[in-house]
């Protein structure tokens, strides 16, 4: 079984405006609504690839109820913990022309509701019910009232089980989880540069920082670099790297989450096909690249058709 965990799910409202007038009334040319947030995006892409996952996390209020209904209608199994207070957040993405360049996107991200101790214990009870061989993907930040040791506590709770945990987080939330040996961590170049205290384009320092994450406990480290491609240092300390795939950037929402989904699906698919270790990680890396680019080149999250087309380019 695959489970995704999102502490801060969101309803993303994406609007487009041709001629933005600050302080005035603007008529939008389009409005799109997406039910997502980090782990939910991962679940959607896994579904598009034909792999079932169950979405865990926290929802609140009327917006949370509407979101859960929408996810179930889309065929995503859900087992969210319902919070007694607050509302699930609504984010706004404003897309405006940028001369001859790609569309400019300005994001307004709202804070999520507080997750009280009782709700946290309900999540830990769900973790207790996982079985050997399961995969758990924990993505994104946590509310202000939840400490930066949360992901570490979750991994500690799973000690003794053969459960692969993927951590897509930043800063102390990521670093505190390292002693518990997450199966995969996926910082982007900006996040890794902040940890390492180096420039985003200092490739050698980023490689060094990724190897340091492995030395701290991460089994695999995948670093996405936007238009500069990505690299993976696998559990055997083998480096896999690739330039960015060719295409027109039209959407930044969910590209990193899609990369995570692609890696997990590619890895599990490779295990199911009996690939050896070298082929297995190469396949997972290629799938990660195709899924991340597929979303970046699409209005929404990558579809299977788009992903397969990009995989054909790689191969």
Brief overview:
The chain has helices at 38-48, 61-73, 117-128, 150-157, 171-175, 189-196, 203-216, 255-273, 277-296, 304-314; strands spanning 2-6, 10-16, 30-36, 54-60, 81-83, 89-96, 104-108, 135-139, 164-168, 184-185, 220-224, 230-233, 239-242. The chain has 315 residues and is α/β, with parallel strands linked by helices. Strand 11 and strand 12 (230-233) form a beta hairpin.
Assembly of the depicted chains:
single chain
Structural class by SSE content:
alpha/beta
The overall pLDDT, averaged over residues, is 92
Helix fraction, binned, reads 25-40%
Return the domain count.
1
Distance between the termini: 29 Å
Order of helices and strands: EEEHEHEEEHEHEHEHHEEEHHH
Biggest beta-sheet profile: 9 strands, mixed
The third-level CATH topology is UDP-N-acetylmuramoyl-L-alanine:D-glutamate ligase
Order the strands across the largest sheet as they lie in space. Answer: 5-4-1-8-9-10-11-12-13
Cα Rg? 19 Å
- Find the count of extended strands (DSSP E, 2+ residues): 13
User: In CATH, what is the homologous superfamily?
Assistant: Ribokinase
* CATH class bucket: Alpha Beta
What this model shows, in words?
Helix content is 38%, strand content 21%. With 315 residues, the chain is α/β, with parallel strands linked by helices. The protein has a single domain (2-9, 37-87, 113-314), classed as UDP-N-acetylmuramoyl-L-alanine:D-glutamate ligase (3-Layer(aba) Sandwich), CATH 3.40.1190. The strands form 2 sheets. A 9-stranded mixed β-sheet has the order 5-4-1-8-9-10-11-12-13, with helices on both faces. Strands 3-2-6-7 form a 4-stranded mixed β-sheet. Helix 4 (150-157) links the parallel strand 8 and strand 9. Helix 1 packs across helix 8, helix 6 packs across helix 7 and helix 8 runs antiparallel to helix 9. It is globular. The mean pLDDT is 92.
């Amino acid at each position: 079984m695959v489970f995704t965990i999102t502490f801060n799910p969101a309803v993303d409202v994406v609007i487009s405006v041709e001629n933005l007038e600050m302080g005035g009334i603007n008529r939008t040319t389009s409005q799109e609504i997406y039910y997502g947030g980090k782990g939910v995006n991962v679940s959607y892409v896994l579904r598009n690839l034909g792999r079932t996952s169950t979405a865990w996390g926290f929802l609140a209020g009327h917006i949370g109820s509407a979101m859960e209904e929408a996810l179930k209608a889309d065929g995503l199994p859900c087992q969210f913990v319902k919070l007694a207070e607050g509302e699930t957040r609504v984010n706004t993405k404003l897309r405006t022309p940028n001369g001859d360049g790609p569309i400019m996107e300005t994001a307004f991200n709202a804070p999520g509701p507080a997750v009280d101790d009782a709700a946290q214990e309900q999540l830990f009870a769900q973790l207790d019910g996982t079985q050997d061989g399961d995969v758990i993907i924990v993505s994104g930040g946590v509310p202000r009232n939840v400490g930066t040791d949360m992901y570490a506590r979750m991994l500690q709770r799973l000690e003794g089980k053969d459960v692969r945990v993927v951590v897509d987080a930043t800063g102390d939330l990521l670093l505190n989880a390292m002693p518990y040996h997450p199966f995969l961590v996926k910082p982007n170049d900006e996040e890794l540069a902040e940890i390492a205290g180096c420039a985003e384009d200092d490739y050698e320092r980023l490689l060094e920082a990724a190897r340091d994450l492995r030395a701290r406990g991460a089994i695999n480290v995948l670093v996405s670099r936007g238009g500069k491609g990505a690299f993976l240092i696998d559990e055997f300390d083998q480096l896999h790297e690739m330039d960015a795939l060719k295409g027109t950037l039209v959407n930044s929402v969910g590209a990193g989450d899609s990369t995570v989904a692609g890696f997990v699906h590619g890895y599990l698919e490779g295990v199911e096909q009996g690939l050896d270790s070298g082929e297995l990680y190469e396949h997972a890396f290629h799938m990660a690249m195709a899924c991340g680019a597929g979303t970046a080149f699409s209005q929404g999250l990558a579809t299977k058709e788009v992903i397969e087309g990009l995989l054909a380019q790689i191969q």
